UniProtKB/TrEMBL annotation:
Gene Ontology annotations of biological process type: fatty acid beta-oxidation using acyl-CoA dehydrogenase
Membrane-crossing residue ranges in chain numbering: none
Location of the Acyl-CoA dehydrogenase C-terminal domain: 250-378
GO molecular function terms listed in the Swiss-Prot or TrEMBL record: acyl-CoA dehydrogenase activity; flavin adenine dinucleotide binding; oxidoreductase activity, acting on paired donors, with incorporation or reduction of molecular oxygen, reduced flavin or flavoprotein as one donor, and incorporation of one atom of oxygen
Assigned protein family: Belongs to the HpaH/HsaA monooxygenase family.
Residue span, Acyl-CoA dehydrogenase/oxidase N-terminal domain: 27-92
PANTHER family the UniProt entry points to: FLAVIN-DEPENDENT MONOOXYGENASE, OXYGENASE SUBUNIT HSAA, MEDIUM-CHAIN SPECIFIC ACYL-COA DEHYDROGENASE, MITOCHONDRIAL-RELATED
Signal peptide from the UniProt entry: none
Keywords (A to Z) from UniProt: Oxidoreductase
Protein name in the entry: Acyl-CoA dehydrogenase
Superkingdom of this protein's organism: Bacteria
Length: 396
C-alpha cells in the first residue's frame, strides 16, 4: 500500500473555508452556547445553510456526499472557536452515515423532506430495555448522551434486544424513531461540552415496527442494505465503526489548537503591556509554549496518519486489517493525550486568570477534558489491546 496521501475532492477546501467564515460568529456566541447547554438555533441554521451538516448525506437525497476527511477537517477548524459546534458537525452530522446504511424504504422516509436532517443517537442506556414482539420491538426506559437532540429530526437508539429468537452477534440493534415519539429530559448539567445538549431520552413502551430496526452488525458491517442505494461513497459500503468512532479526532485536535492560539494571544498581550511585562517570567513562558507547540505538532502528524489510513482503505473499498485497526485506536488515544498535555501545561502556567469560566482557554480546557474522557480515545483499552496483539497474548 502506498504511503502517498490519498486525494480528496475539490470541495474539501471550500467546506473548510465556509467554516472559517462562520468561526468568528461562533466564537462570539460561545459563552451563550455554554449557558444554554445547547447550540443556538442560529448556529444550526448556519450549519445547514453552509452545507456543513450535509457533508456525508447521500447525493441521492440532495446531500453533498463528500469524503470522510472533509467532515473531520471541517470540524477540526470549527473546534478552534467552539468545540460543541464542531461536535455537532462531525459526531452528530456523521450519523447521516448511519442513516444511509438503513434500508431504501427507511431512507426514502428519512429524507422525504430533503437533506436538512439531523440524526441524534443514544447508545448508553440507564434503564432502557428492548424486547422483541410480533412485528417489531417494544422500547422502554432511558438512554443517555443524545447529542443535538434539541434540533434532531431523527433519533437512532441502540441496545441489546431481549427475547429475540435469533439474536445477532453481538446482540445489538439500531432503531430509528422521530424525536417526538420520546420524552427529552434536561439532564445535561456538565463541566465541559455543554453546548452539545447531550440530554437523556425516555421511551414509554414505544412500539417500533420491524422495518425501522436493524441488527447493528448488519448495519455497520461491509456492504449493508443501504450500500445498494448509495453506491457513490465508500462510507455506505465499508465497515463503518472505524469511521464513526474516529470522527472525534477533529474536535479534539481543533479544540487543543484553539486553546493554544488563545494562550499565545493572551501572552502577547501581557508582553505588550508595559505594566505587567516586568513581572512576567518570560523565559519559562516561552519554554512551556514551545513544548506544547511540539506536542501539538506530533498530534497533527498522528491526525494526518489516521485520516489517511481510513481514507485510503475506504477508497480501496476494503476493511482495515486487525493490525491497522489496533494501531489506529492506539494512535487516537495518543493524539488525545498529547492534546491534553499540551493544553494542561499552558493552563497551569497562566495562573488564576485562566480559572474564570468565561476565559476562552478555560472553556477549551473544560471541553477538551470532556471529549478525551470518551470511550473512543480511552487510553487503557487502546494500549492494552495493541500490546496484547503485539505480544500474541489473549485480550482480557
Amino acid at each position: 500500500m502506498s504511503d502517498r496521501a490519498a486525494p480528496v475532492r475539490a470541495e474539501h477546501g471550500e467546506m473548510c473555508a465556509r467554516v472559517e467564515a462562520l468561526s468568528e460568529g461562533w466564537r462570539a456566541r460561545a459563552g451563550a452556547t455554554e449557558r444554554a447547554r445547547s447550540l443556538p438555533r442560529e448556529t444550526i441554521v448556519e450549519l445547514f445553510d453552509a452545507g456543513l451538516l450535509q457533508i456525508i448525506v447521500p447525493r441521492r437525497y440532495g446531500g453533498l456526499e463528500l469524503d470522510w476527511p472533509t467532515m473531520v477537517e471541517a470540524a477540526r477548524v470549527a473546534a478552534r472557536t467552539c468545540a460543541s459546534t464542531a461536535w455537532v458537525m462531525s459526531i452528530v452530522g456523521g450519523h447521516a452515515g448511519i442513516a444511509g446504511r438503513f434500508s431504501r424504504d427507511c431512507q426514502e422516509v428519512m429524507f422525504a423532506d430533503g437533506p436538512r436532517q439531523l440524526f441524534s443517537t443514544a447508545s448508553v442506556t440507564a434503564t432502557g430495555t428492548i424486547r422483541k414482539e410480533e412485528g417489531g420491538f417494544r422500547v422502554h426506559g432511558t438512554w443517555r448522551f443524545s447529542s443535538g437532540i434539541d434540533h434532531a429530526t431523527w433519533l437512532i437508539v441502540s441496545g441489546r434486544c431481549e427475547d429475540h429468537p435469533a439474536p445477532p452477534v453481538p446482540n445489538l440493534f439500531l432503531l430509528a424513531v422521530r424525536p417526538g415519539q420520546v420524552r427529552v429530559e434536561d439532564t445535561w448539567h456538565v463541566t465541559g461540552m455543554r453546548g452539545t445538549g447531550s440530554k437523556d431520552v425516555v421511551f414509554d413502551n414505544l412500539f417500533v415496527p420491524d422495518g425501522w430496526g436493524v441488527a447493528l452488525p448488519d448495519c455497520f458491517g461491509a456492504r449493508p442494505e443501504g450500500a445498494q442505494v448509495n453506491p457513490g461513497s465508500y462510507l455506505f459500503e465499508v465497515p463503518f465503526i472505524p469511521y464513526a468512532t474516529s470522527a472525534i479526532i477533529g474536535p479534539i485536535l481543533g479544540c487543543a489548537e484553539g486553546a493554544y492560539h488563545e494562550h499565545v494571544a493572551a501572552l502577547r498581550k501581557r508582553i505588550d503591556s508595559s505594566a505587567s511585562a516586568p513581572s512576567l517570567p518570560l523565559g519559562t513562558a516561552q519554554e512551556r509554549l514551545a513544548e506544547s507547540a511540539a506536542e501539538l505538532s506530533c498530534a497533527r502528524l498522528l491526525y494526518d496518519s489516521i485520516v489517511q489510513t481510513l481514507h485510503r482503505a475506504g477508497g480501496d473499498r476494503r476493511p482495515l486489517s486487525s493490525e491497522e485497526w489496533l494501531a489506529l485506536k492506539r494512535d487516537r488515544a495518543y493524539l488525545a493525550r498529547l492534546c491534553v498535555n499540551a493544553v494542561q501545561r499552558l493552563v497551569l502556567h497562566m495562573g488564576a486568570s485562566s480559572g474564570f469560566e468565561g476565559h476562552p482557554v478555560q472553556r477549551h480546557w473544560r471541553d477538551l477534558q470532556s471529549m478525551t474522557s470518551h470511550i473512543d480515545v480511552n487510553w487503557d483499552q487502546a494500549m492494552l489491546a495493541y500490546a496484547s496483539h503485539l505480544l500474541g497474548l489473549p485480550r482480557e
